[in-house]
Amino acid sequence: MGINCNLTAANIPIIMNLKISSFEEYKQVYQQSVEQPEEFWNGIAENFQWRKKWEKTLEWNFKEPKIEWFKGAKLNITENCLDRHLDTLGNKTAIIWEPNDPNEDHRILTYKQLHDKVCQFANVLKNNNAQKGDRICIYMPMVPELAIAVLACARIGAIHSVVFGGFSAQSIADRIQDASCKLVITADGGFRGAKNIPLKSIIDDALVQCPTVDKVIVLTRTRTPVAMIKGRDVWWEDEVKKVETQGNIPCPAEEMDAEDELFILYTSGSTGKPKGVVHTCAGYMVYTGYTFANVFQYEPGEVFFCTADIGWITGHSYIVYGPLSQGATALMFEGIPTYPNPGRFWDIVEKHRVNILYTAPTAIRSLMSFGTDLLKDKDLSSIKKLGSVGEPINEEAWHWFDENIGHKKCPIVDTWWQTETGGLMISPIANVTKTKPGYATLPLPGVQPVLVDETGKEIEGNGVSGNLCIKFPWPGMIRTTYGDHERCRTAYFATYPGLYFTGDGCLRDDDGYYRITGRVDDVLNVSGHRIGTAEVENAINMHSSVVESAVVGYPHDIKGQGVYAFVVCPEKHINEELTRSDIAMTVARIIGAIAKPDKIQFVTGLPKTRSGKIMRRILRKIAEGETSNLGDTSTLLDPAIVDEIKAGAL
Ligand code: PRX
Questions:
Q1: What is the pLDDT of residue 247?
Q2: Å from CA of 504 to ligand 1 middle
Q3: Would strands 74-75 and 303-306 be described as parallel, antiparallel, or unpaired?
Q4: Which ligand 1 atom sits nearest the alpha carbon of residue 426?
Q5: What is the pLDDT of residue 382?
């Protein structure tokens, strides 16, 4: 399967194969993608279905920034994910759903069934006054209806904003307000391991602060008692019935411009307020479809199990849009890896004959800690390819994954990317790129990484490290931060003018292979979740007895990074432990349980410079257990505080 693409004949649309089949071909295609990016992407985009083709492939500058791909094209992403497969793959499985409780029946949705359900729910949305351009917040458990809701929004051109089920009422309210959402789709509750999460009740708390929302559609999942407010709250099932009695009329897909907004997904940065990352229709579709097909070398009929939640970008791109646009079978799992026991992933692999397993280092490390006994009588022979995402994978976890799950026969694609990049950026191509433990290896075609020093000067050559930037646009990239374009510019394009700055540190070794070393800004990566230290500090400071706090990360065996909080809390507490729990509870209330500090150290002051800046470098070292070699502390306002903090370190 070669690349049958003549890139010099730019005017003749030639379909370029999505999949690269040898390393030689990778080198050639990569070169072409850098020298003639527009022609390259034209060839890739020919693999998708368009109502109208584009007039211009790319218009851009990283100054404003302005990024427009496939300008003038008309499409609907759901026609690519559903309608275009109906003739050939209508009876093939689109989604396999595995419930939290292994004793509950799993569900299968064929492309035809998924198409019908998406159309039906799209009509429900229309009946509830949703229109093209409206923002819709989705706060749901990992059930097929979550994917249906996402696709139904895209079908009618409404912009979805999915909020992960672990966020608090306050976080949801912030996100709903920021995007002025008009409708919320939720469920009575959600099952996650032994827990039953009262989703609707959390939404009710959030909506007290959200006057823009006039409708809430509630799916039945746990059948927990819920408040249903007249005129505002309706049951999903009742609304579907109404559509059925109306005769289940088809729901033609809304015609969208290439650069119409497809969705908003909030993510943390170095300031206190999460940013609404905006992705648009055409570029995101092309990029996720292409990277899915190419990196995982997806073969028809293979079962692809991405263990992420649809509440994060990984679930958007590699459970919903990427696999479905390629006619793949995606497995969606409602539960957690350790419920009802830590062999659950392996049971799922065996039960559904999973061929590609895409998961996070934190899950691998957690399962590793239970030993290999649980693997003894599991049949993992269906697995052909493995993937990792979300955080740097340590070598020990890489080898464990390789030996015990892949039996040294399956490539591991360590995929580096971000919410802002939309899809995979630096990654091996399965069975094409030679892998190296801990390395995301090489940039995918169309991706032009550069390393820069603190001043923004490009660091060339190999065997070097620096801050990772991207110097040329790719179709899946962020277009703006919702409602605040200036914030997008300052967060990503102003640090190093002319470059997109990722916020990651990176090493390029002697082979030119990339290894991501972690964030260089004030963002933590806890169990693969991005958490801003400023956000956690704001939440801690909401506690009535806290005066001030500073949050840093520290190495954590399972989570990758743990949250370490230094808290100034002058009142003498009768029970320090209880105050710690109260502070953690406050963070759970303000952000969500995922941001709870793992360690809270009470201090009488923080190490600050004379200008009042907290010296986090020192706190980071103390949190990491380093007590000598703290660097220069002479510029501190009160150097004695460092000794006190060191002495009390947890
Ligand atoms: O620091 C990098 C880390 O996760 C960050 C992006 O987080 P988020 O937007 O939540 O998206 C996670 C899923 C794509 C990056 O800035 N990261 C992601 N993948 C890797 C990684 N770090 C090292 N290796 C990876 N493969």
A1: 87
A2: 9
A3: unpaired
A4: 26
A5: 98
